[in-house]
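Tokens for chain A. Residues wanted.
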């Protein structure tokens, strides 16, 4: 469908890519991997026809349609959500107008036997068939389903798009692209503005998408669930692996280890050969052997180790000043914006050293509660900050809030005070801003570079409460791993909002779920929360338990233990059900085998030349008895499956 042949792109004389080539076939699910700035987004733009290249060729099959969702775009604000979404069906709308025009022309004619009249009938019939094949009469329903999957409520569909944030308007653009069903989907960080439920919905949709998908994403679970191929971009070259992301990381490591071992073995052999040549170069009796080894070295294909971008940022939060035992104390906290209630009656205590995640759908109040903690907005109820609490805050739009006209160095230097002014260059270096990079304007930085700079600014002052709202947006896999390690080693208190399950795993010990205008506390980390809620990716958030108040600690612990027992019982039953179903399947196959054997014996007995009546009769009797036993065992197995399933249902 699509082929990139020896594509080279240069910026300011330096090659971003050097003669890269790969093909995209139907049904490919490709994840582009690589560091921030490696060129992943540039490849998408090349395929979309939005980026010129210096050398090579881009070949796209005729009639191949392409849909492209960039990270950032300018979105029109002149229509309602539904009106803007329905522009995705422009081709159907045009077809509908053509059908109406033809029907009008037919109604005005009376020459029913003429060739012109029959031609009109043929044309309108063909177009009606195309209209039906394209489900033209169902487009509003499709649009509503897609928008609902991306988190829009029915009341939102008549609202002007201008009332929505950039993230929500990005969802409208994604909905339009998905509804157009192009042959190739190009998605650049599609999950950045999606909550966990919407990510799960999009994941299911892309798994079954009819065309090819090429995506840039730093969500490991999302990539593993969808992709079947990973193209790594590193130092201007690409490496193509026919596996999802996690499997690719293993194969990449194995490839480099094998390459290194082969290189070292060859270098050892070269050294030994060169020593032999040098030792016997001037001995006439060894002349033939020396010449043979010289020729061998000349013909030897030298093994090279692929260059690898091993630069990683060095992030370590300074020791946290000691705070009081209670860091945050909330008593009936709530928030309304006019008549709109975000949440109410939130009662919780956050103690020193706890690491907590906020999860839930967008719009349920996660960022609102963070802003309350930061004292940025008024609220109902009481929220107290403990003794000597010093807060470091990373807002969701922190990278975008930096002054675009300042340089990297000016940005951090303006915030530094006292002795920290002497350490700003070291801090920038640890965040991969070295040499001339510190003189770059913020406006030219990539999303990942801005995010790194914003995090670097947080190290200028000692903190003991770190509040981070979606800090992993735009960070590549390597930077996310470094940030996660630094947060695990941070000896203060952490509150983090994130939709990235991999990032949260092993990081937090308590989860606050925001749902239906409530804040619900779940003891344990994100892994325990997922197991307890029977969620694969935090979808179907439908618990009925409320937040645990300070006086409910004992009952909370008992409930948690009870939930663990319930989980263990369900797990055991699931195992028993699988065994019973396997037994039923085996018996069903045995029945089929016995029936075929009986049929063969009967056919043999019907042929006088082949029949051995006494022997055949005994065999037939034995087979019929075994068939009867298999039937009884099959029925018993089915009853056992039903019984176990009823028990499993009762434990929900």
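Reply:
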């Amino acid at each position: 469908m699509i082929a990139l042949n020896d594509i080279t792109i240069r910026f300011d004389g330096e090659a971003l890519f050097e003669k890269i080539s790969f093909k995209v076939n139907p049904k490919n699910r490709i994840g582009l991997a690589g560091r921030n700035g490696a060129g992943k987004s540039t490849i998408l733009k090349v395929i979309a026809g939005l980026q010129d290249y210096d050398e090579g060729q881009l070949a796209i099959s005729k009639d191949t349609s392409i849909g492209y969702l960039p990270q950032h775009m300018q979105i029109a604000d002149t229509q309602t959500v539904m009106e803007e979404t329905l522009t995705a069906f422009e081709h159907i709308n045009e077809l509908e107008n053509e059908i109406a025009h033809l029907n009008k022309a037919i109604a005005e004619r009376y020459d029913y036997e003429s060739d012109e009249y029959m031609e009109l009938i043929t044309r309108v019939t063909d177009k009606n068939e195309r209209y039906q094949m394209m489900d033209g009469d169902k487009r509003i329903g499709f649009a509503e389903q897609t928008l609902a999957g991306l988190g829009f409520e029915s009341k939102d569909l008549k609202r002007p798009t201008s009332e929505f944030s950039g993230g929500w308007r990005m969802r409208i653009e994604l909905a339009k692209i998905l509804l157009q069903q192009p042959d190739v989907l190009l998605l650049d960080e599609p999950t950045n503005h999606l909550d966990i439920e919407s990510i799960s919905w999009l994941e299911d949709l892309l798994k079954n998408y009819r065309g090819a998908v090429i995506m840039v994403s730093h969500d490991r679970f999302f990539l593993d669930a969808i992709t079947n191929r990973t193209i790594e971009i590193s130092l201007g070259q690409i490496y193509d692996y026919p596996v999802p992301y996690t499997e690719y990381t293993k194969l990449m490591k194995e490839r480099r280890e094998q390459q290194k071992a082969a290189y070292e073995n060859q270098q050892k052999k070269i050294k030994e050969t060169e020593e032999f040549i040098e030792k016997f170069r001037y001995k006439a009796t060894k002349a033939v052997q020396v010449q043979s080894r010289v020729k061998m070295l000349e013909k030897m294909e030298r093994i090279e180790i692929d260059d690898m971008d091993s630069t990683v940022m060095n992030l370590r939060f300074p020791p946290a000043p000691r705070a009081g035992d209670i860091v945050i104390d909330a008593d009936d906290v709530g928030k309304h914006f006019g008549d709109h209630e975000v949440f109410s009656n939130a009662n919780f205590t956050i103690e020193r050293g706890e690491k907590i995640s906020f999860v839930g759908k967008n719009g349920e109040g996660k960022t609102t509660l963070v802003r309350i903690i930061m004292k940025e907005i008024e609220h109902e109820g009481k929220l107290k900050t403990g003794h000597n609490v010093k807060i470091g805050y990373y807002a969701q739009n922190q990278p975008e809030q930096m002054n675009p006209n300042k340089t990297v160095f000016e940005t951090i230097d303006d915030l530094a005070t006292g002795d920290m002014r002497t350490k700003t260059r070291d801090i920038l270096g640890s965040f991969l801003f070295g040499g001339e990079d510190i003189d770059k304007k913020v406006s030219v930085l990539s999303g990942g570079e801005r995010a790194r700079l914003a995090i670097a600014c947080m190290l200028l002052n000692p903190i003991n409460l770190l509040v981070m709202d979606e800090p992993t947006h735009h960070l590549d896999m390597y930077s996310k791993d470094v940030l996660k390690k630094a947060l695990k080693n941070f000896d203060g208190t952490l509150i983090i909002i994130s939709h990235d399950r991999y990032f949260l795993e092993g990081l937090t010990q308590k989860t606050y779920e925001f749902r239906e205008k409530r804040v619900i506390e779940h003891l344990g980390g994100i892994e325990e929360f997922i197991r307890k809620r029977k969620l694969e990716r935090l979808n179907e958030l439908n618990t009925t338990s409320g937040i645990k108040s300070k006086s409910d600690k004992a009952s909370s612990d008992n409930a948690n233990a009870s939930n663990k027992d319930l989980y263990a019982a369900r797990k055991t039953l699931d195992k028993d059900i699988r065994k019973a179903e396997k037994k039923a399947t085996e018996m069903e196959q045995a029945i089929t085998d016995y029936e075929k054997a009986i049929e063969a014996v009967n056919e043999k007995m019907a042929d006088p030349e082949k029949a051995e009546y006494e022997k055949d009769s005994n065999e037939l009797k034995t087979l019929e008895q075994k068939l009867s036993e298999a039937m009884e065992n099959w029925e018993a197995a089915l009853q056992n499956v039903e019984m176990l399933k009823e028990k499993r249902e009762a434990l929900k």
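The mean pLDDT is 82. The two ends are 47 Å apart (CA to CA).
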